[in-house]
């Protein structure tokens, strides 16, 4: 019996929306048969900044038990799904800093040929959800990764309209994540796992 696909869900979340999406992605991957690691990246903001925002402080304290991602997790994974809030239409510095630590693995070719995808949350309706995911995917291209977005490959994607990856507009915490968006995130986890499983099986057949 072949070993399960290994999926790392690597995210940054300040007040909880991206964390909730990460949990849904992980759930979808697990239900598709993957071995999943749910991992946050290290916080870079000073304690004073976190304490100045009650929601940020509360979420920071509530997620201390979530393991912090390391380059070793990237090497372990067959597939990686990154999550980030948008910052001025771009990837949050906390996730970007983690990506910038991966030069050693990149130089050895150990980030290539893995499956990658992403998800995002924003404060405003048109606050850069698509631009943030497209910016995130620049790193995937440099890795030599296999980009697997949800596209419009499932009916839930026509309900959410986010072919680049699951996304949520939270209006500074005022809007909860919809059932459709959670299902889109679960679907992304399933799709990433299924495509990675096919690639893994194909490699095993070629190596046999």
TrEMBL record:
<dbReference type="InterPro" id="IPR008254">
    <property type="entry name" value="Flavodoxin/NO_synth"/>
</dbReference>
<protein>
    <submittedName>
        <fullName>NAD(P)H dehydrogenase (Quinone)</fullName>
    </submittedName>
</protein>
<feature type="domain" description="Flavodoxin-like">
    <location>
        <begin position="7"/>
        <end position="192"/>
    </location>
</feature>
<dbReference type="InterPro" id="IPR001226">
    <property type="entry name" value="Flavodoxin_CS"/>
</dbReference>
<comment type="similarity">
    <text>Belongs to the WrbA family.</text>
</comment>
<dbReference type="Pfam" id="PF03358">
    <property type="entry name" value="FMN_red"/>
</dbReference>
<dbReference type="InterPro" id="IPR005025">
    <property type="entry name" value="FMN_Rdtase-like_dom"/>
</dbReference>
<dbReference type="InterPro" id="IPR029039">
    <property type="entry name" value="Flavoprotein-like_sf"/>
</dbReference>
<dbReference type="InterPro" id="IPR010089">
    <property type="entry name" value="Flavoprotein_WrbA-like"/>
</dbReference>
């Amino acid at each position: 019996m072949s070993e399960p696909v290994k999926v790392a869900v690597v995210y940054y979340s300040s007040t909880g929306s991206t964390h909730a999406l990460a949990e849904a992605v992980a759930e979808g991957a697990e239900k598709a048969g993957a071995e999943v690691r749910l991992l946050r990246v290290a916080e870079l903001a000073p304690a004073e900044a976190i304490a100045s925002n009650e929601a940020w402080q509360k979420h920071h304290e509530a997620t201390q038990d979530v393991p912090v991602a390391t380059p070793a997790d990237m090497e372990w994974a067959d597939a990686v799904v990154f999550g980030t809030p948008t910052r001025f239409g771009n990837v949050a510095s906390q996730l970007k800093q983690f990506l910038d630590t991966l030069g050693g693995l990149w130089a050895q070719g150990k980030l290539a040929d893995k499956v990658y995808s992403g998800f995002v949350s924003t404060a405003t309706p048109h606050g850069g959800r698509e631009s943030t995911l497209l910016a995130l995917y620049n790193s995937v291209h440099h890795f030599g990764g296999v980009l697997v977005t949800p596209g419009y490959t499932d009916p839930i994607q026509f309900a959410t309209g986010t072919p680049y990856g699951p996304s949520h507009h939270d209006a500074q915490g005022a809007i909860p994540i919809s059932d459709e968006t959670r299902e889109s995130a679960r679907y992304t986890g399933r799709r990433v796992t299924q495509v990675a499983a096919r690639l893994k099986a194909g490699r095993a057949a070629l190596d046999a």
